[in-house]
Design a protein that fits this description.
It contains 3 helices and 8 strands. The protein is an alpha+beta fold and 200 residues long.
Length: 200
């Protein structure tokens, strides 16, 4: 009766190289997912800006966005003011009118890298907050790659050993069946021993 095909667990547990390789690949997968985990953070900066002064907006990546708050530092505003939002080349992206009776909130999109006061005689206090995402465990990608390489090598060598053992087992089984067949040839279809080769 033919033996049932072994399960994956039986193959892995019967070959330590393949089992070790499978464990390494599983660890590599866990580390890879951990490496691409994203976390959101906020960077803020505050200070004071004078008329015609240009202030750079620090970003971790050009596509980061956030908000800019501007508030006049005097109780009385002498003249109306405007803030200009500039790109990397300090070219105008947008102009925003500023009121002197409270905070002015301006959206900072991915195009904006600088801002300055282009009109008015009063200084403004500013604070901007930039939202960004980062991967705190991205360094885990290095051991994940190493585990992947060694895991593949271990499974390849283990599979090679498994196939060699499987082939040897088949050869042994074939030899045993061949011996049984040769012994069976001395018995005729009636079950009478015919080893002496008697004629009928």
């Amino acid at each position: 009766m033919n033996r049932e095909a072994p399960s994956i667990w039986e193959v892995l547990s019967g070959n330590m190289r393949m089992l070790f390789g499978a464990i390494l690949l599983l660890l590599a997968l866990i580390l890879a997912f951990s490496a691409v985990y994203n976390k959101t953070g906020t960077f803020s900066q505050e200070g004071s800006v004078d008329p015609e002064e240009t202030v750079g907006i620090e970003k971790r990546r050009p596509e980061n966005e956030g908000k800019l708050n501007l508030k006049v530092d005097n109780e009385t505003v002498s003249t109306s003011a405007e803030a200009a939002l500039l790109d990397d080349n300090r070219e105008l992206v947008q102009k925003v009118s500023l009121s002197g009776d409270g905070s002015n909130t301006v959206e900072i999109d991915e195009e904006v890298s600088y801002f300055k006061l282009v009109s008015g005689e009063d200084s403004y206090d500013y604070e901007y907050r930039i939202q960004f995402s980062y991967q705190p465990f991205r360094w885990l990608a290095i051991p994940a790659a190493i585990f992947t390489v060694f895991g593949v090598i271990a499974i390849y060598r283990g599979f090679d050993e498994f196939m060699t053992d499987f082939a040897e087992e088949k050869v042994e089984k074939t030899k045993e069946e061949g011996v049984e067949t040769e012994e069976g040839q001395h018995v005729d279809f009636m079950g009478i021993n015919n080893e002496e080769g008697e004629d009928r």
